[in-house]
Design a protein that fits this description.
The chain has about 950 residues and is mainly beta. It is flat. It is built from four helices and 76 strands. It has eight domains: about 10-130, Sandwich (Immunoglobulin-like); about 135-315, no CATH class; about 320-415, Immunoglobulin-like; about 420-510, Macroglobulin (MG2) domain (Immunoglobulin-like, Sandwich), CATH 2.60.40.1930; about 515-600, Immunoglobulin-like (Sandwich), CATH 2.60.40; about 605-700; about 720-825, Immunoglobulin-like (Sandwich), CATH 2.60.40; about 825-944.
Amino acid sequence: MNSKKAITLLVLLSMLLSMVPMSFGALTGTLDVNEQDDPFGASIAQAQVGDDLTLTGDGITAGQNVEIYWDLVQPWSSADKEGLLNTSKAESSGAFDVWFEVPEAAIGMHYLWAKDMDTGETDNIQLEIYPDADGDSSSGLEGDKVDVDASGFPDETDVAFLMIDDAGAPETAGAPYSPLTQTTSLTYSFTLSQTLILNGTLAMNDGADTWTDNGDGSLTAAGGVTGTGTVDYLTGEVELTYAAAPAVAALQVTAFDYYVNAVDAVFVFSSGVETNDFGSATKTCTIPDEATEMGYGTYLFLAMDGEGNSATDTFTIGAVITLDVDEGPVGTLVEIRGSGFDPAEFIGDAASEVVITDGVTPVDCEIVDVGAGIDIDAEGDFKLEIIIPSVDMDDYDEITVIDGVGNTADADYEITGEAEIEVSPEYGVQGTTISIEGFNFSAIDDEEVVLNLYEADGVTFVVEITDYETDNDGEFSGTFTVPARTSETYVIKAEQTDWGIEAEADFRIGMMIVILSPDTGATGALVTITGTGFTDDMEWNATFGDLDLITDGDVDSDGNLGVGAIPTFYVPTVDPGVYTITVLDIDTEIEVEVDFTVTDKTMVELDPTQAPQDYNVTLMGKYFAADDDDGSDVTLEWVLWNETDDWDMDVDQYWDHDDNEVTANIVRTAIVNDEGNFSAYWDFNDGDIELDVGTYWINVTDGEDMFAQVEFNVVEKTVDVEARKSVFRVGDTLAFNLESSFAQDDSYIKIWGPSGDLYWRTDDFVAGVWLKVGTVELVPYYQQVAGGNPMTFLDDAPLGTWEWSWYDDDDDVVDEGTFTVEAAAADVIGEQVADLANDIMDLADQLMDVSEEFGDVQSDIADVAAIAEQAVSAAQQAAEAVQTVAQTANQANTAAENAATAAEAARDAANSLTTLVYGAIGAALVAALAAIVSLMQISRRIAG
């Protein structure tokens, strides 16, 4: 099964088209629509602006959205008339259908695109637009204004608007016309004596050549000298180009047809209205005078351009009707107003009627409060109301009013729903109370609906059951009691004979029951379904929610489901929840419903979920179709795919089928056990599948359409080794951070000292040394030894930059690098303490100098030296324990230097010392003292 398929598309209207292959790319299917004939017999089988179409196809990811676009795959642009048209959801099979309306577009080929919103895949099909004309009214009287829209013409071109009789016969040119005389020029231009030429009718002869009008504005010549030319059908302008100068005296126009105003035949509204960028134009047309121009009758609005493109729309001049609503279901109350009818007549009497028709067979519409008939007033006007009767909603689409002398008017009406009844349940034993609801009956309050029972043929009356009354929405509801009749299938009809409305439903008198065993379980569970009370020797089917479950079930001669064997089914792959299983008696269309609770959904788990090429991946699945242990295995199909490609997978397992257990004895293609589960492995190192780094999906499907999908990521292979530290000291033990996607058995590391001498060679990293952590293998630190001993830097280890290389089992270098070895920490601290002691001695000397110079300032200053000496002693003790004391000593040194500077300033001003100066000196000494005290406190904390 190929789980990622390209999208295939198809356009349908009234007919089913041939399906197309499911390979991604250009479509090979056919395109067709309803044919529309123009008044001159040309049959065009393409689409028009405003057509309602359905795009169908398959290949979409099940349950995902599909979007369709016009011309460009982008959000809809109202300015450019291109982009997103509509969105739908694909069925479980990947099939879809999306309704859309053809947007405003110029004549020619356009593209419909479909996009799978899950995968991003797209495909397209061409659709050709051809011209259309559409009036906003189908009938009218003299002086009425009708907007006629022309669409599907070339962009920015002139379009003429006319009214012609329904035969479409234009005028024919009179006497032959000779516009040219001989000349040596090869190009001739002239204008015909008439305009609005009927395309394809212009004929010319120059004695040697016969010119032909191709109907698309082009002319060709054949005969003595060939040539080409063009004609503009709106203006009559002709241009000819000869291949060589003609050897005749004159060119003669022998015939052409054209449109010109003629009573009851042709009326020209405009000889040219320019279309917009999308080939559309609109002309407001005033209906001509009935007496002198266009009398009562059926005509055509005609839109035509100078290149031979044209379209028509039917219009009737005469009696007119308008509807207050132009669509609605059966039972709708419709008001009709009429004009132009005979004042001496009535509507609704024996000689007149109101009907709804499919164009062939009219059906009477009953008039509300008709009495002896609805009077037509002196101006030919009337107003009445009708109820839409029960007719085929797909065919009947026009309401017609005819008076007693034959004046007729039509109006379009779309039936949007048929009368219907819903009976719940659709079966019951005699005396049971059954609920019923009715929709789309007469939309008038308190109108009677009678419920009758008929034989299964729907014709033979059995008994009247009860009656109901409608509300003004045409609905009713209530209950009825199953009558005492023989247990078999009947037809219940809800009827309104006064309004021509009825609806029916099959009903079985007697018990119908369906039982599931079990009625709860995971997807893939095998369920037995039993039932009775169905139509003998007929057929049934079942659905699971929206999914087809059983499509061709048989009913035995006793009305039980299944013939010979009890039917079973596997619970399909759906989300957990409560689902309704509907069993349909196909003969009677009676449905019996029963619920099933899904507890768990089909699933697949990977270990790991991401791995490098050549990795062995474990796959575990649950809730697939269980092996029923009848000797046939439930097979599994595996597909790996990404957005551009897909691959079949070979998935195996260790399996003891007899004991239904995993063993280490048998390797076979993966299957499920009798619980619908499996455990398997996939080794993609066989060279058949070379995967790039990226995201993939694995689809797993069994023979019963159980399905699960799981994401899998391919990553780069890991080969990574580095020393645990960039700097080691004498006394440290060397070790490496050693990782690989796969165990590098029998690999080893060599280490060289700064002089290039081999210092160590590790023991081989053999199988059993490697430890798997996540998706990588690593060698723990305690397993990295040389000669069985840890690699410790002894006291005589050389200092400087060391080198290392990692070798595989073929002695090839896998990776290499460097690290640094420095002296032991104790040696470094000793040097730092010595430096600190020197700094502190310098501090003491400076403090002694301060004491000597200011002995005569204040006697207490002499104590500073002693305190400093104590600080020196404390600092020396601290230095032996910690390097950080040096910083504090430096602070004390700085403070002492500041004190000395102050003292020198004081000495220079000895003759003029003031209290302020003494204060400054004292502050400097106090700062020095504070630093020393701090040093002493640190020393005590370290010592204590």
